[in-house]
């Protein structure tokens, strides 16, 4: 039996998510698999690639052939280089930690109630009210200077 390591497509339309599986080469793309060895989500930023390294190493050692797409993913994670005895690639990009939405909400609530030392964001209405007043003051100063220049000529 020829065994392949390949992608099994999951997810919705225009939102593909794949499982990296070990399957018989004669089975359908989304058919029965022998073992699930990882996950690949290309739509995330950066892409999510999670691989069970020990299981992939085992299947490669017993002769399983990766598909072209899976081989590229294994090269990114370093599992292919480990199997071939080559130097490891640079580490994968990791998504930045998400801001804690609950903490941000509590900070905004305290600022609105007047309990915080300083508001997290300046008030938009106050900033808009200050901007026109600041723009009109220099214009008023320019008017007399222009009139004085006109009188001298």
Automatic annotation (TrEMBL):
One of its GO terms (cellular component) is small ribosomal subunit. This is Small ribosomal subunit protein bS16. Residues 111-153 are annotated as: Disordered. SUPFAM superfamilies: Ribosomal protein S16. It comes from Micromonospora haikouensis. One of its GO terms (molecular function) is structural constituent of ribosome. Keywords: Ribonucleoprotein, Ribosomal protein. GO terms for biological process: translation. InterPro entries: Ribosomal_bS16, Ribosomal_bS16_dom_sf. Residues 111-121, 129-153 have a biased composition (Low complexity). Belongs to the bacterial ribosomal protein bS16 family. It comes from the Bacteria.
């Amino acid at each position: 039996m020829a065994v392949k390591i390949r992608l099994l497509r999951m997810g919705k339309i225009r939102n593909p998510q794949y499982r990296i599986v070990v399957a018989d080469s004669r089975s359908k793309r989304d058919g029965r698999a022998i073992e699930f060895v990882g996950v690949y989500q290309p739509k995330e930023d950066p892409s999510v690639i999670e691989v069970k390294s020990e299981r992939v190493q085992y299947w490669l050692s017993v002769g399983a052939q990766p598909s072209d797409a899976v081989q590229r993913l294994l090269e990114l994670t370093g599992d292919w280089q480990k199997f071939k005895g080559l130097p490891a690639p640079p580490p994968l990009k990791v998504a930045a930690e998400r801001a804690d939405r609950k903490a941000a909400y509590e900070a905004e609530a305290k600022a609105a109630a007047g309990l915080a030392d300083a508001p997290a964001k300046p008030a938009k209405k106050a900033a808009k009210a200050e901007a026109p007043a600041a723009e009109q003051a220099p214009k008023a100063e320019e008017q007399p200077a222009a009139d004085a220049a006109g009188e001298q000529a």
